[in-house]
């Protein structure tokens, strides 16, 4: 790959390009945006990383995850609106992260979310969920304190 070539069609991450006899740097935001635009998969049965015989099972699991976490998130919002405690807020945020995580997985299966973004969001949300749950447990204290 030469200095003006790129790993993504139409631009690259922080690569030097010639434009009107001056060099400019193309930012990584533009590269990510182009990777979203260049993705043209809309059928989960045609995604290269997913075997077609497993696509219905994966779709069913992800749709159930989206539905289940959305229902739980709605219930958590109602519970938080009634209680207004930090513990309920933390659990509501965790369930909201689980909904977002499930939606990112669904977007990845349909080719709307690149695999790199999928992994970034999924692992970051896993970490955030773990931290928030541990903090909620830490704040709850012992049974004698309540």
UniProtKB/TrEMBL annotation:
Keywords: Membrane, Transmembrane, Transmembrane helix
InterPro entries recorded: DUF7471
Pfam short name (any one): DUF7471
Domain of life: Archaea
Keyword Membrane: yes
Keyword Membrane on entry: yes
Residues spanning the membrane: 54-81, 88-115
Region (Disordered): 1-20
Name under which the protein is recorded: Uncharacterized protein
